[in-house]
Protein backbone atom coordinates (compact mmCIF):
# COMPACT_ATOMS: atom_id res chain seq x y z
CA UNK A 1 0.00 0.00 0.00
CA UNK A 2 1.30 3.45 -0.96
CA UNK A 3 1.86 5.61 2.12
CA UNK A 4 2.50 9.35 1.85
CA UNK A 5 3.77 11.19 4.90
CA UNK A 6 2.87 14.84 5.38
CA UNK A 7 5.95 17.01 5.92
CA UNK A 8 4.22 18.64 8.90
CA UNK A 9 4.21 15.25 10.65
CA UNK A 10 7.92 14.85 10.01
CA UNK A 11 8.64 18.39 11.20
CA UNK A 12 6.80 17.76 14.46
CA UNK A 13 8.65 14.46 14.98
CA UNK A 14 12.06 16.08 14.39
CA UNK A 15 11.25 18.96 16.74
CA UNK A 16 10.03 16.69 19.55
CA UNK A 17 13.06 14.43 19.11
CA UNK A 18 15.50 17.34 19.28
CA UNK A 19 13.86 19.17 22.20
CA UNK A 20 12.85 15.93 24.04
CA UNK A 21 9.61 17.58 25.11
CA UNK A 22 6.13 17.87 23.59
CA UNK A 23 5.60 21.15 25.43
CA UNK A 24 8.74 22.80 24.10
CA UNK A 25 8.15 21.37 20.63
CA UNK A 26 4.63 22.82 20.60
CA UNK A 27 6.06 26.23 21.49
CA UNK A 28 8.75 26.01 18.81
CA UNK A 29 6.20 24.98 16.18
CA UNK A 30 3.56 27.45 17.40
CA UNK A 31 1.04 24.63 17.70
CA UNK A 32 -0.97 23.35 20.63
CA UNK A 33 0.47 20.39 22.53
CA UNK A 34 -2.54 18.25 21.64
CA UNK A 35 -1.99 18.97 17.93
CA UNK A 36 1.65 17.85 18.13
CA UNK A 37 0.68 14.70 20.05
CA UNK A 38 -1.93 13.87 17.41
CA UNK A 39 0.62 14.39 14.64
CA UNK A 40 3.11 12.03 16.29
CA UNK A 41 0.45 9.35 16.74
CA UNK A 42 -0.52 9.68 13.07
CA UNK A 43 3.12 9.41 12.01
CA UNK A 44 3.61 6.28 14.10
CA UNK A 45 0.50 4.77 12.52
CA UNK A 46 1.89 5.43 9.04
CA UNK A 47 5.33 4.13 10.00
CA UNK A 48 3.88 1.07 11.73
CA UNK A 49 6.40 1.62 14.53
CA UNK A 50 6.61 3.35 17.90
CA UNK A 51 9.08 6.17 17.34
CA UNK A 52 9.08 7.91 20.72
CA UNK A 53 9.04 6.69 24.32
CA UNK A 54 7.14 9.09 26.58
CA UNK A 55 7.69 9.54 30.32
CA UNK A 56 6.81 12.33 32.79
CA UNK A 57 10.43 13.50 32.77
CA UNK A 58 11.44 13.38 29.10
CA UNK A 59 10.82 12.00 25.63
CA UNK A 60 13.30 9.49 24.16
CA UNK A 61 13.70 7.94 20.74
CA UNK A 62 13.06 4.24 20.29
CA UNK A 63 15.46 2.27 18.13
CA UNK A 64 13.10 2.70 15.16
CA UNK A 65 12.88 6.41 15.97
CA UNK A 66 16.66 6.76 15.94
CA UNK A 67 16.83 5.14 12.49
CA UNK A 68 13.96 7.27 11.18
CA UNK A 69 15.19 10.62 12.54
CA UNK A 70 17.99 11.10 10.00
CA UNK A 71 15.65 10.54 7.06
CA UNK A 72 13.02 12.85 8.57
CA UNK A 73 15.59 15.63 9.02
CA UNK A 74 16.77 15.36 5.43
CA UNK A 75 13.23 15.36 4.00
CA UNK A 76 12.20 18.42 6.03
CA UNK A 77 15.41 20.28 5.15
CA UNK A 78 15.07 19.53 1.44
CA UNK A 79 11.38 20.52 1.48
CA UNK A 80 12.17 23.88 3.13
CA UNK A 81 15.12 24.53 0.83
CA UNK A 82 12.94 23.95 -2.23
CA UNK A 83 10.28 26.36 -1.00
CA UNK A 84 12.87 28.95 -0.03
CA UNK A 85 14.40 28.87 -3.52
CA UNK A 86 10.99 29.22 -5.18
CA UNK A 87 9.87 32.03 -2.89
CA UNK A 88 13.17 33.89 -2.76
CA UNK A 89 12.79 37.62 -3.27
CA UNK A 90 15.41 40.17 -4.28
CA UNK A 91 15.15 42.15 -1.04
CA UNK A 92 18.14 43.84 0.55
CA UNK A 93 18.75 46.04 3.54
CA UNK A 94 19.06 45.70 7.30
CA UNK A 95 16.56 44.49 9.90
CA UNK A 96 17.10 45.05 13.62
CA UNK A 97 15.01 42.49 15.51
CA UNK A 98 14.72 42.26 19.30
CA UNK A 99 13.25 39.24 21.07
CA UNK A 100 12.87 37.70 24.54
CA UNK A 101 15.66 35.29 25.44
CA UNK A 102 13.52 32.13 25.72
CA UNK A 103 11.94 32.59 22.30
CA UNK A 104 15.33 33.40 20.79
CA UNK A 105 16.72 30.05 21.90
CA UNK A 106 13.66 27.79 21.57
CA UNK A 107 11.25 29.18 18.99
CA UNK A 108 13.11 31.36 16.50
CA UNK A 109 16.36 29.65 15.37
CA UNK A 110 14.83 27.59 12.55
CA UNK A 111 12.51 30.43 11.53
CA UNK A 112 15.39 32.87 11.23
CA UNK A 113 17.46 30.32 9.33
CA UNK A 114 14.65 29.98 6.78
CA UNK A 115 14.43 33.76 6.40
CA UNK A 116 18.19 33.99 5.86
CA UNK A 117 18.02 31.33 3.13
CA UNK A 118 15.10 33.06 1.42
CA UNK A 119 16.59 36.55 1.66
CA UNK A 120 20.38 36.23 1.62
CA UNK A 121 20.85 39.95 0.88
CA UNK A 122 19.10 41.06 4.06
CA UNK A 123 21.42 41.84 6.97
CA UNK A 124 19.72 40.61 10.15
CA UNK A 125 20.70 41.84 13.62
CA UNK A 126 19.06 40.04 16.55
CA UNK A 127 19.18 41.31 20.14
CA UNK A 128 17.77 39.54 23.22
CA UNK A 129 16.63 41.04 26.48
CA UNK A 130 13.66 41.92 28.70
CA UNK A 131 10.51 43.05 26.90
CA UNK A 132 10.28 46.37 28.74
CA UNK A 133 13.80 47.39 27.77
CA UNK A 134 13.37 46.23 24.19
CA UNK A 135 10.08 48.08 23.65
CA UNK A 136 11.58 51.27 25.07
CA UNK A 137 14.11 51.16 22.23
CA UNK A 138 11.62 50.33 19.45
CA UNK A 139 12.14 52.75 16.58
CA UNK A 140 15.56 53.83 17.80
CA UNK A 141 17.62 50.67 18.19
CA UNK A 142 15.10 48.15 16.83
CA UNK A 143 12.77 47.89 13.84
CA UNK A 144 10.81 44.94 15.24
CA UNK A 145 10.31 43.61 18.76
CA UNK A 146 8.85 40.20 19.58
CA UNK A 147 7.57 40.79 23.10
CA UNK A 148 5.84 39.18 26.04
CA UNK A 149 3.05 41.31 27.50
CA UNK A 150 -0.06 41.02 29.66
CA UNK A 151 -2.93 39.40 27.74
CA UNK A 152 -5.28 42.07 26.41
CA UNK A 153 -2.55 44.73 26.43
CA UNK A 154 -3.79 45.95 23.05
CA UNK A 155 -0.39 46.69 21.54
CA UNK A 156 1.34 45.04 18.61
CA UNK A 157 0.09 42.10 16.56
CA UNK A 158 -0.76 39.28 18.94
CA UNK A 159 0.61 35.94 17.71
CA UNK A 160 -0.44 33.72 20.60
CA UNK A 161 -1.43 33.61 24.26
CA UNK A 162 0.76 31.91 26.84
CA UNK A 163 -0.42 30.63 30.24
CA UNK A 164 1.83 32.04 32.97
CA UNK A 165 2.39 29.47 35.72
CA UNK A 166 4.47 28.73 38.76
CA UNK A 167 7.08 26.00 38.33
CA UNK A 168 9.39 23.91 40.48
CA UNK A 169 11.50 20.78 40.12
CA UNK A 170 9.68 17.69 38.86
CA UNK A 171 11.76 15.43 41.11
CA UNK A 172 9.03 15.28 43.73
CA UNK A 173 5.59 16.54 44.72
CA UNK A 174 5.35 20.25 45.52
CA UNK A 175 4.71 21.19 49.14
CA UNK A 176 3.59 24.70 50.07
CA UNK A 177 6.00 25.79 52.81
CA UNK A 178 6.57 29.39 53.90
CA UNK A 179 8.56 31.38 53.32
CA UNK A 180 8.54 30.35 49.68
CA UNK A 181 12.04 30.28 48.18
CA UNK A 182 11.96 32.10 44.83
CA UNK A 183 14.19 32.18 41.74
CA UNK A 184 13.21 35.19 39.63
CA UNK A 185 14.52 37.43 36.90
CA UNK A 186 16.13 40.69 37.99
CA UNK A 187 14.00 43.83 38.31
CA UNK A 188 12.49 45.49 36.43
CA UNK A 189 10.73 42.44 35.02
CA UNK A 190 7.03 41.78 34.41
CA UNK A 191 6.96 38.17 35.63
CA UNK A 192 8.88 39.14 38.80
CA UNK A 193 6.33 41.88 39.51
CA UNK A 194 3.38 39.55 38.88
CA UNK A 195 4.83 36.90 41.18
CA UNK A 196 5.50 39.21 44.12
CA UNK A 197 2.18 41.04 43.76
CA UNK A 198 0.26 37.75 43.66
CA UNK A 199 2.06 36.34 46.71
CA UNK A 200 1.57 39.53 48.71
CA UNK A 201 -2.13 39.67 47.85
CA UNK A 202 -2.49 36.02 48.88
CA UNK A 203 -0.73 36.73 52.19
CA UNK A 204 2.05 34.22 51.50
CA UNK A 205 5.53 34.87 52.88
CA UNK A 206 8.46 34.66 50.46
CA UNK A 207 12.13 35.42 49.99
CA UNK A 208 14.18 35.69 46.83
CA UNK A 209 16.86 33.01 46.90
CA UNK A 210 18.21 33.60 43.38
CA UNK A 211 17.97 36.50 40.95
CA UNK A 212 19.44 36.68 37.44
CA UNK A 213 19.03 38.37 34.08
CA UNK A 214 19.13 34.92 32.42
CA UNK A 215 15.88 32.97 31.97
CA UNK A 216 17.91 29.79 31.56
CA UNK A 217 19.75 30.32 34.84
CA UNK A 218 16.55 31.06 36.78
CA UNK A 219 14.78 27.99 35.41
CA UNK A 220 17.84 25.81 36.04
CA UNK A 221 17.87 26.82 39.71
CA UNK A 222 14.16 26.01 40.00
CA UNK A 223 14.70 22.67 38.26
CA UNK A 224 17.42 21.82 40.79
CA UNK A 225 14.76 21.73 43.51
CA UNK A 226 15.72 24.67 45.71
CA UNK A 227 13.30 27.33 44.52
CA UNK A 228 10.00 28.21 42.89
CA UNK A 229 9.84 30.33 39.73
CA UNK A 230 7.42 31.72 37.12
CA UNK A 231 7.44 30.51 33.51
CA UNK A 232 5.61 30.66 30.22
CA UNK A 233 3.94 27.25 29.92
CA UNK A 234 5.08 26.83 26.32
CA UNK A 235 8.80 27.46 26.81
CA UNK A 236 9.51 26.08 30.30
CA UNK A 237 12.63 23.92 30.31
CA UNK A 238 12.57 20.14 30.92
CA UNK A 239 12.88 19.19 34.57
CA UNK A 240 10.12 21.54 35.75
CA UNK A 241 6.56 20.79 36.82
CA UNK A 242 3.90 23.46 36.30
CA UNK A 243 1.84 24.56 39.28
CA UNK A 244 -1.24 26.67 39.94
CA UNK A 245 -4.08 27.38 42.37
CA UNK A 246 -4.63 23.65 42.93
CA UNK A 247 -1.30 23.59 44.79
CA UNK A 248 -2.23 26.60 46.95
CA UNK A 249 -0.43 29.16 44.81
CA UNK A 250 -2.13 32.36 43.59
CA UNK A 251 -3.26 32.62 39.98
CA UNK A 252 -0.99 34.66 37.69
CA UNK A 253 -2.09 36.90 34.78
CA UNK A 254 -2.05 35.33 31.30
CA UNK A 255 0.57 36.65 28.93
CA UNK A 256 0.63 37.01 25.16
CA UNK A 257 3.32 37.12 22.51
CA UNK A 258 3.05 40.14 20.22
CA UNK A 259 5.10 41.48 17.32
CA UNK A 260 5.70 45.24 17.44
CA UNK A 261 6.64 47.23 14.33
CA UNK A 262 8.33 50.62 14.74
CA UNK A 263 6.19 53.56 13.72
CA UNK A 264 7.07 55.52 10.62
CA UNK A 265 7.84 54.26 7.17
CA UNK A 266 9.56 50.86 7.38
CA UNK A 267 11.94 49.66 4.69
CA UNK A 268 11.03 46.83 2.35
CA UNK A 269 13.40 44.56 4.28
CA UNK A 270 11.61 45.32 7.56
CA UNK A 271 8.10 44.83 6.13
CA UNK A 272 9.25 41.58 4.55
CA UNK A 273 10.60 40.29 7.87
CA UNK A 274 7.45 41.43 9.68
CA UNK A 275 5.20 39.53 7.27
CA UNK A 276 7.50 36.49 7.39
CA UNK A 277 7.38 36.30 11.19
CA UNK A 278 3.60 36.71 11.31
CA UNK A 279 3.10 33.94 8.75
CA UNK A 280 5.65 31.64 10.40
CA UNK A 281 4.62 32.14 14.02
CA UNK A 282 0.95 33.06 14.22
CA UNK A 283 -1.37 30.20 15.08
CA UNK A 284 -5.11 30.31 15.54
CA UNK A 285 -5.00 27.66 18.28
CA UNK A 286 -2.75 30.13 20.12
CA UNK A 287 -2.92 28.61 23.62
CA UNK A 288 -0.85 25.55 24.62
CA UNK A 289 -2.92 22.92 26.40
CA UNK A 290 -2.55 23.02 30.17
CA UNK A 291 -4.45 20.40 32.17
CA UNK A 292 -7.02 21.67 34.63
CA UNK A 293 -4.80 20.63 37.53
CA UNK A 294 -1.95 22.69 36.00
CA UNK A 295 0.64 20.41 37.60
CA UNK A 296 2.64 18.48 35.02
CA UNK A 297 6.17 17.92 33.89
CA UNK A 298 7.65 19.60 30.87
Summarize the structure.
The chain is of the alpha/beta class and 298 residues long. It has helices at 7-19, 22-29, 33-47, 63-87, 101-106, 109-118, 131-136, 190-202, 215-224, 268-281, and strands at residues 52-54, 59-61, 93-99, 122-128, 144-150, 157-162, 164-169, 180-185, 206-212, 229-232, 240-243, 255-261, 296-297.
Output the helix-strand order.
HHHEEHEHHEHEEEEHEHEEEHE
**Low-pLDDT residue spans:** 284-297
Oligomer: single chain
If helices are DSSP runs of H or I spanning 4 or more residues, what is the number of helices? 10
- Report the principal-axis shape: flat
**Helix content range of the residues, please?**
40-55%
Number of strands: 13
Structure commentary:
With 298 residues, the protein is α/β, with parallel strands linked by helices. Helix content is 40%, strand content 23%. The protein contains ten helices and 13 strands. The chain has a five-stranded mixed β-sheet with strand order 4-3-5-12-6. Strands 10-7-11-13 form a four-stranded antiparallel β-sheet. The protein has a two-stranded antiparallel sheet with strand order 1-2. The longest helix has 25 residues, at 63-87. The two termini are 37 Å apart.
Amino acid sequence: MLRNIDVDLLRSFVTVAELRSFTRAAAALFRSQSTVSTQIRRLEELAGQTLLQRSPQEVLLTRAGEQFLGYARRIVALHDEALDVINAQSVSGRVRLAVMDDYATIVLPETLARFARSHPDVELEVTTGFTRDLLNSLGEEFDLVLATQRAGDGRGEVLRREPTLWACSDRGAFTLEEPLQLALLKAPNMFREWALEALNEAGLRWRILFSSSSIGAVEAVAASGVALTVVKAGTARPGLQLLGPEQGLPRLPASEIALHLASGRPTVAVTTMNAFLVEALKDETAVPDVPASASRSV
